Amino acid sequence: MKLRVLRQFRDKDNHEKIYKPGDVFETQDESRANDLVARGLATSPVPSQGWRTVAEQHPAEEEPSSGTAEGAEDPAEKPGSKGGKKNK
User: Fold this and answer.
1) How far apart are CA 53 and CA 58, in angstroms?
2) DSSP label at residue 57
3) What is the tally of structural domains in the chain?
4) In this structure, is residue 31 part of a structural domain?
5) What is the pTM of this model?
């Protein structure tokens, strides 16, 4: 079953894998899918056509730096954030 990711989360089996909003999470475990939906991390099943897999969406993406907490977003990467780099 495929689920559309709504909020960023780290895979519970592969702690190096981070799913981001818009990614497609695939699982055969119905209880796992129900848990993600109940926690607001993903939507219930999405259509199988027209969705790209996570590997297709982020093919050359590197792991986040060790400077951020596990699963936390880096405020410097958000436009308009008060912390981090400023665009001039």
Assistant:
1) 9
2) H
3) 1
4) yes
5) 0.52
